[in-house]
Specification:
Layout: H1 2-9, H2 16-23, H3 34-43, H4 52-65, H5 69-82, H6 88-95, H7 105-121, H8 123-133, H9 139-150, H10 162-170, H11 178-194, H12 196-205, H13 212-218, H14 224-240
Helix pairs in contact: 4-5, 5-7, 6-7, 7-8, 7-9, 8-9, 9-11, 11-12, 11-13
Length: 242
């Protein structure tokens, strides 16, 4: 923490209230720019000499006890950077509980990146947890159950079946939480990169059920013709329902 505070003293005053609102968090901000945060992380802390297996226990404690946005961000950075050095199942046992401390989209996405990589190595273990999170009362756990499936499809080494992906999305297609809906749209967009025909058919089926934030994100990468057709179909179905 001292390293972060010293670095923050050299920063120009930042619009912390605006940043806090943009991130959407109740955590405290120290006020570091991203380059400064990376520099502090690279310089290291007093426990940096310890083996990664010991360091991750410290970062686990900091994630769970610190209410500073930057500290939690660095915990995510440490795990992401050192993921290849850890056993997937052991890492999962540590970081699966981190979802309960998430209160903003930035940390949620960082955790999804880690979860999606672990999922490739411990599929059944993690997919089973995703199914539980899919019906959780915690919206950030619900979001993890879908965004954590693929994160970005372009970095996946193996593809899950369309049926398993669809099952998780379908459970949240009418979810009322804005960030869950953004996650639905994100995931449908990424599924479409792998299964374009199946995803297009699914969007046709769910054209009236899918919420606006999800719909906008889901069709983002479609070609102009399909994008316009789905927009018109959605519009027509809404008029018909009146």
């Amino acid at each position: 923490m001292r390293q972060l505070l010293r670095a923050a003293e050299t920063e120009k005053p930042s619009k912390l209230k605006d940043l806090k609102k943009y991130i959407g968090t109740q955590n405290n901000f120290i006020g570091l720019s991203v380059p400064s945060l990376r520099a502090v992380f690279k310089t290291g802390f007093s426990f940096n000499h310890l083996p990664p297996r010991q360091q991750i226990k410290i970062w686990d404690h900091l994630w769970k006890t610190s209410r500073h946005y930057e500290i939690m961000s660095m915990a995510l950075s440490f795990v992401s950077k050192n993921l290849p050095a850890f056993e997937a199942a052991d890492t999962w046992e540590i970081v699966k509980s981190w979802a309960t401390q998430v209160d903003n989209w930035a940390h949620s996405d960082g955790l999804s990146s880690i979860y999606s990589r672990l999922l490739e190595k411990e599929h059944e273990l993690i997919y089973t947890q995703y199914k539980l999170w899919n019906t959780s009362s915690n919206p950030w756990e619900r979001r993890q159950s879908i965004v954590g499936l693929l994160y970005y499809s372009s970095i996946k080494k193996a593809n899950m079946s369309f049926e398993k992906l669809q099952q998780m999305v379908s459970g949240l297609i009418t979810d009322e939480n804005y960030f869950v809906q953004k996650g639905v749209g994100w995931t449908l967009r990424e599924i479409g990169n792998i299964y374009p025909a199946e995803t297009l058919a699914y969007l046709n089926e769910q054209i009236t059920a899918i919420r606006p934030p999800a719909f906008t994100a889901a069709i983002e990468k479609l070609d102009a013709a399909n994008k316009d057709r789905l927009k018109q179909l959605r519009k027509a179905n809404k008029k018909g329902a009146r």
